[in-house]
Design a protein that fits this description.
Blueprint: H1 15-33, E1 45-50, H2 56-67, E2 71-76, H3 88-96, E3 101-105, H4 110-119, E4 123-125, H5 133-147, E5 153-157, H6 163-175, E6 178-182, H7 191-204, E7 207-211, H8 214-218, E8 223-226, H9 238-244, H10 252-255, E9 263-266, H11 278-281, H12 288-306
Parallel strand pairs: 1-2, 1-3, 3-4, 5-6, 5-8, 6-7, 8-9
Helix pairs in contact: 1-5, 1-12, 2-12, 3-4, 5-6, 5-12, 6-7
The structure holds phosphoric acid mono(formamide)ester and norvaline.
């Protein structure tokens, strides 16, 4: 039972809970496609707060809550007194009086714990600097749709400190999967995060391996994943990152080293010509639009599961 549980990091979930959330996501897809969605959130209000821009997360969570019979209250930070200095603690205390859960996209991961502590309502991470759990559920839903199983080899090529990569590694570590990470030495995944993931991987039998060479990392994998080189909030270090990552673009040539059946994944938004070439993201191996669609079903599964 996940009722009342925060969804801040995937490390807080057991393997069977992640599997159950994904099974429920598949059921949600059937309900949506057959126009027969149940309404477990009737009479429930969910606050969705955004400190940073969003297209997919904002639209899919809002749609998910509405389809389930609930009402999403969406706020950009600049519309709230929070932007004028009201502390997140007080924002959480007040919003909790009107709502059954709070989703938040935040600049600093710690803010999610503050919101959870002061709202006493379940808090869902809608992206922080250290993770994006809802995205990864949609990614692995897509993997299962394409391959019939979760345990395929996946290579992430790009920034080793990327929030998507952190959640991908957490999911793999919990589920006992194999992930190859290709990044320049200067942008390796942060030590403390890598250590936590390795400890978890040891328990589950997952294989999380670092490569400096992107060609070695993608050799024989079934899924190649990348994300933007410059995440939201990193604009001041953009030039340095672009320079460091210039040999880590996902090109058609790089995709040739992966398995013949390999798919290309990207959380989006994408910069064609930077982290990925247009002929890959718009080519036959790309699964990015299914991945984006699956954000809806996984969001439905999460909110239906956690709201008491
Ligand atoms: N993938 C994703 O979270 O996209 P948005 O930033 O548009 O929400
Ligand atoms: N790493 C990206 C993901 C966007 C969905 C960012 O944080 O901007």
């Amino acid at each position: 039972m996940l009722k009342g549980k925060n969804v801040i990091t995937l490390l807080d979930f057991e393997k069977y809970e992640l599997e159950e959330l994904l099974e429920l996501s598949f059921r949600m897809k059937e309900f949506v496609l057959s126009n027969s969605v149940p309404k477990p959130l009737t009479g429930k209000i969910v606050a969705l707060l955004f400190e940073k821009p969003s297209t997919r997360t904002r639209a899919s969570t809002q749609a998910a809550i509405s389809l389930l019979g609930g009402y999403p209250m969406v706020f950009n930070k600049d519309e709230l007194q929070w932007s004028r200095g009201e502390p997140p603690e007080d924002t959480a205390r007040v919003l909790a009086r009107y709502t059954s859960a709070i989703g938040a996209r935040v600049l600093k991961h710690e803010t999610l714990y503050t919101l959870a502590e002061y709202s006493k309502k379940p808090v869902v991470n809608l992206l922080s600097n250290l993770g994006h759990p809802l995205q990864i559920l949609a990614d692995y839903m897509t993997v299962k749709e394409k391959f019939g199983r979760y345990d395929v080899k996946l290579a992430f090529v790009g920034d080793g400190g990327d929030n998507i990569l952190i959640s991908l590694m957490e999911f793999a570590a919990k589920m006992g999967l194999e992930i190859h990470v290709a990044s320049p030495k200067e942008l390796r995944p942060p030590q403390d995060i890598w250590k936590r993931i390795e400890e978890e991987a040891e328990r589950s039998g997952a294989v999380i391996e670092y490569f400096e060479d992107p060609y070695e990392a993608v050799r024989g994998v079934q899924a190649v994943y990348t994300d933007v080189w410059v995440s939201m909030g990193e604009e001041s270090i953009a030039q340095r990152k672009i320079e460091l990552l210039k040999n880590y673009r996902v090109t058609k040539d790089l995709m040739k080293y992966a398995s013949k059946e390999a798919i290309f994944l990207h959380c989006l938004p994408a910069n064609r010509g930077q982290e990925v070439d247009a002929d890959v993201i718009d080519g036959p191996q790309s699964a990015v639009w299914d991945e984006a669609e699956n954000r809806l079903y996984t969001a439905m599964a999460v909110f239906a599961s956690i709201i008491p």
